[in-house]
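PROTEIN DATA CARD
Card holder: RTA1 like protein-domain-containing protein
Chain length: 307
Origin: Suillus fuscotomentosus
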Amino acid sequence: MTPSVFEASQLPNQNRVGPYTYVPTEWICILFLVLYSISTIIHLSQALKFRLWWMLPTATFAGVLEILGWSARLWSSHSPKLLTPYEMQLVGTIIAPTPLVAANFIILGKIINQVGPQYSRLTPKLYTIIFCCFDVICLIVQAFGGASAAHAVSQDTSAAMGANIMLGGIAAQLFAIVVYVTLASEFFLRLKFNSPFRHVEQPRVLEKGQSAVSKNLRVLICAMAFCTLCIFIRSIYRTVELAGGWFGPVITTQHYFDWLDGAMVTLAIYSLNFFHPGIWLNKENPTGHDLEQAADEEEEAEEEAAA
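Structure generated from the sequence above:
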């Protein structure tokens, strides 16, 4: 037996096929491959158009990794016992959402810097440094675990250690997301009730009755929340999947992977296409938010007067 082929006889169930224990459905693989390709091309174009270079190693790179992963799954739909595509999709799909999470961390820092750093427990710069560094560590841990598990499968040995390493990386990322959401929620609550956390030079002071954020910024915040929720659901699924064992009922069920990994990450990555920070965040003009907010309030006043 060559190390490139995983025989079904080595699996707990004789009826299972290859390392997946099922054959990936071809049309589903094609669908996700097309969706991720479109999103990645749009992200690349948007990053270049708006000169948001940090969107290249984050959202765009996440799309590239998903393309790699789903291309490999498409390959596996024709050769389910071949190990090379299995290893590619294992590493690609496990680490792909990590750069996408980093994009949300950076966007939050920019929103905080724009609407009021005094309401945040951390400075905008610290948000980027702390969470992105932690994200990179999670990425490396998950990649190492995925490579270790893939190597174990190729050597016909237990992949439990690699799976546990991946589980640790995903659990750590899940923890980071919870902390991120907690700090973000605190910031928005302090902003809403005009309760600064710390002193900053030249703070943005809200007038009585003034809305904390403009309509455009509210849309971007909602999109970020949706994106984070999708990734959070995916991370919970992956945690349960790996905790259940390499041949557990979750990891061996294709529908779970398609809906709770593929679909969730698709929704997350497209949310930043449709509500791109280059469009919805006034990055060029530091006073743009105030001007836009003033226009919003004037419009609301006119609507109230008309009513």
